[in-house]
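Protein in question quoted for reference:
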Amino acid sequence: MPLKVTDSLVKKVLQQYRIGENFTILKPESGYRNTVVPIKVGGKTLSIIFYKDEPKILQKIKVSNLISNSLAKKGWPTRHVVSKSSHSILKLHHSTQTYYCCLYNYLPGNTINWENYSKKHIKLLGQVLGFLHQDLKLVEVRSDILVDKIYLILDRNNNKMYKYFTNKEVTDALEQKLKLKVNLKFREKLNSVAAKLKNNHSEQLLHMDFVRGNILFCKQNNYQFVQDSRLIFDDDKKENNQQLAISGILDFEKVALGPREVELARTLAFLLVDCKYKAPQKVLKYFLYSGYLKRGQQQNINVRLVSQLVKHFLFQDFYYFLLHNPYESLPQNEHFTRTCKFLLSQTNPVLISLEQT
């Protein structure tokens, strides 16, 4: 459920941030776990983000702020804290709800649907992730701020999925309503991948939510928003004198420590399923080879590990679809059916298999 944020609550927050009376509240933008309220203040646009009060949210906000502030200092279009108050993160009790909130700069641009991602968008996404990884590697994390390790996250998820899929009610419903059967050997296969990550010593900070809703694109004339060449599609033909650029990278709440292959696989799993008008081989070529490795100036990627992790994330997404939706509705969900199609198309019992009954 989206957070309900009233004008009176926004005004209360602005008072605490010592913003005067000369401001205009713009239309809120509701997300899954937060609500963004843009405000005009003295010719400038800022954003108040209201976060749901949920487990570990304060820690997540602190980590996100630390990393996005550091990247902003390096010229990245990320949110950075804008506050005259000594406490940049506020905790508020309003009506029956508790909120955390923070005041940030405003980033221009728009998200676009996966199906509207062109070859240029996919290449640019890989390019920007390549450069982002270079700078994330240099970000120092304070000792008092905990960042989870990716192999621990995957290990916890594997245990949750195993518990779910060994529930007889789940297996019966899967067979009866969706005609699907899960091979329980998936746990052994996925745990072996998590073990590889534990023993991989090339870990660094990863965004881990580098997906459609967190990437702002803009088509710009004369680089009015973006001047950093790392964020601009470098061989654009300038249709109508416009150039494609990424003008914002949002939400570092899921940041984790791990090898780069994990983030590549996480983003690729989304791209493969949701860019339905592009062949999988083309998506891989545009994002990984043309974008990340060539334009993003990266090297020494374990492509086999990326492939194994893509299957891991596809299975994890399959699990989340089942967990959060009535089974009866899923055959009408194109993202679910395409995820199943990819899992069923695996000819070798590599990581997991879904067997049609």
Q: What stands out?
A: The chain has a mean pLDDT of 88. The chain has two domains: 7-105, 114-143+200-356. The radius of gyration is 21 Å.
